Amino acid sequence: MSQEASSSFAGQEQPHPEFVDIHSHVLPGVDDGAASLDEAVRMMETARRHGTRVLVASPHANPAFPYDRSRTERLLDELRARAPSGLQLIRGCDFHLTFNNVEQALRWPADFAINGRCWLLMELSELTVFANTGALWRRLEDAGLRIILTHPERNALLRQRFELIEQWVSEGRYMQLTAGSLFGGFGSAAQRFATRMLDAGLAHFVASDAHDLRCRPPRLDLAFQWLARRYGEAYARRLVVDHPRCAVEGLALNLEGFGPPPRLPWWRRLAGAKPKTN
Ligand SMILES: [Fe+2]
Description:
11 helices; six-stranded parallel β-sheet; binds fe (ii) ion; 9 strands; TIM Barrel; three-stranded parallel β-sheet
């Protein structure tokens, strides 16, 4: 199901905050994202039209799609020349945990970090959690990087290991959900897991992970509406505005008091009462 298709609950366009989307495959012809410059331009226009002000272009870095910083910079310049007014494009990378990638990132951390600062998008294998994953992360962290684990809710292996998510967050790693997961776009198991993480305050970012215009569009407005309806606007803003902005600026997250507001009993929700948010 596409986010476009799931927009029926959203009704008319509502005013919303200015979103910062830290994960997208908008660069044309480098991976399984935008296939052409024309599609990339239309993706940028869609993002801007639906409230995104900052879009991180994060091409894959894996054996199938090797990452090349100079080519990324070149394409970014091309896209910036065609970007709609009010949309800022930032360099990032969808970094897969491989031995070679880790070696590269230890030598040149800024090549892979969002905006060349310190936050690193990290995708894990769906086949195994390597015994040395924590050790590799510590080496990257010692090099100044902060790990954002991408879409754990879409990883069938991690869905069996909620305690690992809890452990990793308690150790100072961060979690990014895919916007489409909230609406069931990646199946009901991913949707349930995403909700469980949000209920527990274990998700720090929601990003589009946009690949195209139809199945995974660069939209955060529907995710924001869904989050605001379920948890209140304050929590929603943290996930799609405040935390992503910190990542782009290379700042630490202030997680004091971070988490969902208390859930109201169903009869009060039915009566239209809103949870108190701070
Ligand atoms: Fe991605």
